[in-house]
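User: Teach me something about this protein's shape.
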Amino acid sequence: MIIPALDLSGGHVVRLKQGDFGQKTVFNVDPIKRIYDAANQGAQLIHIVDLDGAKDPILRQRALISKIVKASPVPIQTGGGIRSAFDIENLLNLGVERVVVGSVAVKHPELVRGWLKLYGPEHFTLALDVRIIDNVPYVATHGWLQTSNTTLDQVLRHYLPFHVEHVLVTDISKDGMMKGANNNLYAALYKKYPDLDIIASGGISSLDDVKAVAQAGAHSVVLGRSLLEGRFSVEEAIKCWQNA
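Assistant: First, the predicted structure itself:
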């Protein structure tokens, strides 16, 4: 599946380079119009990153997210700084289809296990950002500022018994660099976890990149900057994905 992504900060669509707020590009586009255009071209899910909420849950852009969810013709998955059941219930009550949980899945797994059981695993996407060290993917936390001692495999194996379905995996070194995805990583994940919805993210800049990540075995791919910069359309990406 092709999943268009929009990063939001201060009500604007932005993109960060490798998660750095100091390297932020603001795009003069209407998020709701972008979502309508993507849906009309065949998108079935939209990925929204609330960068303000990621910095501080108090700053979560609830009003904007609510407006987007009500207007969107397709389901929304969103996250950013999810740390409590209140955060989850608030987003689900707004009509969000999937809540994206990141650092808390590594730092407080007991909480996330409880959420999966209480709200249903179908309503969550685990977002695991990794740094590759000696060919081993380690999960980063705190908005990529810290790299844990926990490997990606350790996290996935922990959550498999709790029926996690959707896992968004980003190689931090690829994000915003527009030089292709880490397809070796996604191929290895597909081999180990063929039944997981592994969602690729980071580095996609061309239709050749889309084709390569599909061939690597990722079930879905999030596309952000490449679509915002008009390198190709959602419709072109979907056709490429289907024919890979």
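Now, about its shape. The mean pLDDT is 91. The two ends are 12 Å apart (CA to CA). If you'd like, I can walk through any region in more detail.
User: That's plenty for now, thanks!
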